[in-house]
């Protein structure tokens, strides 16, 4: 039988970095979408 290799589990540092990276991109994106919806509502109201 062949031995199946898996990727090593990420430590807390890798998970924290991934979380911070997603927040770094996600929060400004969410704010921009929110502002877009508000402006579009004003445009069509």
From TrEMBL:
Domain of life: Bacteria
Bilayer-spanning residue ranges: 12-37
Stated name of the protein: Uncharacterized protein
UniProt keywords, alphabetically: Membrane, Transmembrane, Transmembrane helix
